[in-house]
Amino acid sequence: MQIDLIAFDLDGTTLNSKKEISERNRHALRKAYEQGIKLIPCTGRSMYEFPNELNKFIDEFGFGVFPFVITENGAQVYDLAKKKLLYSKSLPKETAMAILLEGRKQLAVTYGSFGIMGACDNIGLAWESREAKPYLDDFLEKWNPSLANLEELIEWNDGLTKISMTFLHEEGYNKFFKIFSSWPGLALSSSWENSIEVMTEGISKGEAVTFVSRHIGIPLERIMAIGDNLNDLEMIQCVKFGVAMENAIPVLKDNADWITASNDNDGFALAIEKVLSK
Length: 278
Prior knowledge:
Blueprint: E1 5-8, H1 23-34, E2 38-41, H2 52-61, E3 68-71, E4 76-79, E5 84-88, H3 93-103, E6 108-113, E7 118-121, H4 125-128, H5 133-143, E8 147-148, H6 150-157, E9 162-167, H7 170-181, E10 186-189, E11 195-200, H8 205-216, E12 223-227, H9 233-238, E13 241-244, H10 250-255, E14 258-259, H11 267-276
Parallel strand pairs: 1-2, 1-12, 7-8, 12-13, 13-14
Antiparallel strand pairs: 3-4, 4-5, 6-7, 6-9, 9-11, 10-11
């Protein structure tokens, strides 16, 4: 099995529960790069949220270590060396606004991404409810997002790339997933428990990996993808060798070619080492 490109998720995959890259994972990335394998981070994060743990590799090896970066669950693809946005799709302003206003009625933390940067909406029931305050405080401490009135930002930016909602209760998540599933022109995904990420139709990490595959001439048959959550499903399905983390959701494991160890037990490194040993 010849693998020339590895597309990999960040949170829950490359990063452990402390949002760090273990020394073994770090070593595996270096070995893959030194052997000429293309390394493509594929994340639900925006470029602004690209983790410092990976920026250290760029400082060490230059932009060539990650020639392309897929962000916003596949809504954007960057060529880092050329400082160029190769691919981008956004939600129309009217659709983004409607989703935001619905979200404000629920116990949900709403985050809007605008490509390079994003912000957490600072208006709505979650900000007014005593029940939500401990959850909201924990969310803000964990992610430290910028806070803003997303309604104004959507107007200024004429839409947004992705809108994410993390619900306090599973019932709210189930209700909104059902509602949004019936909306035309949308793509739904999830990166963590009780979260919904809404993008424009046709967006997925799988579509973005396919775009990069065509752009640089590496066929999908020579690509490995590694992930842990629903937003990684199309990515591991479209390539030759799809890997699910041990901590992955069941549907991802069911569709994977191989299941590695968890993100807290160097599963990412084990998957790369498996390829390098061939």
